[in-house]
Amino acid sequence: MSAVLYPGSRVDVDALPAHPDRIDVRSPAEFADDHIPGACNHPVLDDDERARIGIMHAASPFEARRLGAALVARNIAKMLETAFAEQPREWKPLVYCWRGGQRSRAVAHVLNEVGWRAVQLDGGYRAYRRHVVAQLAVQPARYRFRVVCALTGSGKSQLLGALADAGAQTLDLEGIAQHRGSLLGQVPGTPQPSQKKFETDLLAALGLLDPRRPVYVEAESRRIGAIQLPDALLHRMHEGETIILRTPLLERIALLKSEYRHFLQSPALLLDRLRPLVEFHGKAAFARWETFAASGDWDALIGELLESHYDPLYGRSMARHFPAMRPSAVFGLRDPTPAGFAALAADVLAASNDSRMAVMGR
């Protein structure tokens, strides 16, 4: 959809592809929670100013508008003198705020008065958010998923990466969620995005995929850390082909020690994360884990966690989500190195091009 540009013009969400220069004038906290992909944050009110105006508005709407107008005018002036100072005469930015109201209208008006051809997003971020929710309810049905299923520590993420390196289409849900999807899955020093930001990034990732080609994805439960997957995506994944990866226990332990080495360097943190499992496995089991951690016997600790907790949990999850699972192929991992995963990815892609059932190992 194209839009005629003139001072004060408004465009809807469908016009976003025609407007790659996007200005989000909401506060930094609003922007951090979620924003339209590609947008730059140039707030007309920062977080403290917005809170101050909100409190004042409850007592005197007129005084709040008067002070707010002064603050907005100063902040727009700073934008003109700094961030926008080098923009060419032909600049055509799209401006949005929460609901396409006064904040974005003020900035768009000034930009157009300068001589740029600014447009305002009708309905603002709120309209875009409704668009994301609506699209995530229908977009997953466009794709054919090949779901990599395996016990914890089998190398699903490494295989997915190797498939991407080999040119396959992949959807890295744990990467988008910034979480490895288990009790110990929080990425050190990296907080998870908000649910809204996750969904925005997920829709953007889906938009890069070709529906004519299969999409490889890891099997996931409904939640990845604090993030909940959209129902339509889960439903479509559960309808997909399943690829089973079988990795021997010793190789799984080695992979987990490499992937979670930050816990090996901080046993206290590891035990703190494992403490909720006392409810399911008892104090005696937790005491054994403490002894293993204190002595650095990581193979014993990881092995017991896999066999007593994670493997049964995986079995229950698969029975619930893939009750009629008929795997397209079963693969065995014997070489948990980058070269081994590259070779495994080649086998997976070769088998996927064959209509016959395949049972392969390396």
Task: Give a verbal description of the structure.
This protein folds into 2 domains: 10-134, 3-Layer(aba) Sandwich (Oxidized Rhodanese, domain 1), CATH 3.40.250.10; 137-361, Rossmann fold (3-Layer(aba) Sandwich). 50% of the residues lie in helices and 12% in strands. It contains 15 helices and 13 strands. The protein has helices spanning 28-33, 47-59, 61-81, 102-114, 124-136, 156-165, 173-177, 195-207, 231-238, 249-259, 261-264, 267-274, 278-295, 298-321, 338-352, and strands spanning 10-11, 22-24, 39-41, 94-96, 119-121, 145-149, 169-171, 215-218, 223-224, 227-228, 241-246, 329-332, 358-361. Strand 9 and strand 10 (227-228) form a beta hairpin. The longest helix has 24 residues, at 298-321. It is elongated and about 70 Å long. The relative contact order is 0.11. Residues 1-7 and 354-362 have low confidence and may be disordered.
Count every helix, treating DSSP H or I runs of 4 or more residues as helices.
15
Total domain units: 2
β-strand percent reads 5-15%
- N-to-C series of helices and strands: EEHEHHEHEHEHEHHEEEHEHHHHHEHE
CATH overall fold name of the largest domain: Rossmann fold
Shape: elongated
**Architecture per CATH nomenclature, i.e. the level-2 architecture of the largest domain:** 3-Layer(aba) Sandwich
Query: In which order are the strands of the major sheet placed?
Result: 7-8-6-11-12-13
Determine the fraction of residues in helical runs and give it as a percent range. Answer: 40-55%
Largest sheet: 6 strands, parallel
Average pLDDT value? 91
Instruction: Compute the CA-based radius of gyration.
Output: 26 Å
Distance between the termini: 51 Å
**Low-pLDDT regions:** 1-7, 354-362
The beta-strand count equals 13
User: Class of the largest domain, according to the CATH hierarchy?
Assistant: Alpha Beta
Q: What structural category arises from helix and sheet content?
A: alpha/beta
